[in-house]
Write a structure and sequence with these properties.
The chain is an alpha/beta fold. The protein contains eleven helices and eight strands. The protein is elongated and about 60 Å long. The two termini are 37 Å apart. This is Methyltransferase.
Length: 311
């Protein structure tokens, strides 16, 4: 079972600290969806796969007549229902691999935000080909490793604690072995492993920026790929890192390493941010108030879009 589906995973914490998506991302997806559609075409039905707490379903609902939000995690489904009041949105538990509750050619647009790297495509592709209408669209997107703009010295620290093959601090294991694979690798590789069946989909469009593959300088990134950029307090960035599935796996494996908030000597995230803060004199000078420091954070991103073939 995925860590997100475990009863110990905090769906509320995930909702509180995960970055939201900007209007420019949704505008790009809707622009692709609406291209070549008849001016009189209705909004139709949106299918949101791996909906999490329902953020995408709520954001795109005004553009569709009905929305079906699907997630395999009971906790996520419960959180989405709590946060969603629009009557046109139906939230239910389920997977991309089993859409048997949907009639043939009943979906106009299918989306998956930060979820497409978990699908079993041997089952998901046939289901999507069945339920998406001719001319309908698909949009999968995700974001991955972040960098703090203007502070490249912090990136190696992040890499060492999150992906390092050796101990980032003597006696402390990194998060590396706790990532759920191959999902994380597929995301970090910008969905290159997700191959659209050519007989079912056309007009494939991919927009990606890979800060882990080349320069961390955002000037090297195409503007259309820089949609996941936020001004955050360092404390909020710390909270985001604590939503990592790998962190929750690390926590389960090392229950003796209590966070300082719990009265312990510090878990891996405490130790990571201790080093991050110490690297920048201005942050270190803030003492215990370092969590209030605001930083510009940008993530590597990928968008994959396609149109259902006319058959």
């Amino acid at each position: 079972m995925s860590i997100f589906g475990r009863s110990t995973f905090s769906s509320a914490g995930y909702a509180a600290f995960r970055p939201s998506y900007p209007p420019v991302l949704f505008s790009r997806i809707l622009s692709f969806h609406n291209a070549n559609r008849a001016a009189t075409a209705s909004g139709g039905t949106l299918l949101d796969l791996g909906c999490g707490h329902g953020l995408i379903a709520r954001a795109l609902a005004p553009s569709f007549d009905s929305v079906i939000a699907l997630d395999p995690s009971p906790g996520m489904v419960e959180q989405a229902k709590k946060l969603t009041s629009e009557h046109k949105i139906v939230v239910r538990q389920g997977k991309a691999e089993d859409l048997s509750f949907l009639p043939d050619k009943s979906v106009d647009c299918v989306v998956a935000g930060q979820a497409a790297h978990w699908f079993d495509y041997s089952k998901a592709w046939p289901e999507l080909a069945r339920v998406v209408k001719q001319g309908g669209t698909l949009a999968f997107w995700g974001y991955k490793d972040h960098v703090i703009v203007g502070h490249p010295e912090t990136t190696p620290i992040y890499d060492r604690f999150v992906y390092g093959s050796s101990e980032p601090v003597p006696g402390v294991e990194s998060m590396a072995r706790f990532w759920e694979l191959p999902g994380r690798d597929i995301l970090r590789d910008s969905y290159r492993a997700i191959a659209l069946p050519k007989q079912d989909w056309n007009s494939e469009t991919r927009i990606a920026w890979d800060p882990d593959r080349a320069s961390k300088d955002i000037n090297d990134a195409p503007e259309e790929a820089l949609w996941q950029r936020k001004t955050l307090k360092l404390g909020e960035l710390e909270g985001y890192v604590r939503t990592f599935s790998a962190f929750h796996g690390w926590q389960s494996a090392h229950p003796e390493r209590k966070s300082r908030a719990e009265g312990g000597d510090g878990d891996i995230v405490d130790l990571m941010f201790e080093e991050v803060v110490a690297t920048v004199p201005e942050w270190k000078a803030r003492g215990d108030a370092w969590r209030e420091v605001e930083v510009d954070v940008v993530w590597g991103t990928v968008i994959l879009m396609a149109r259902r073939s006319q058959q």
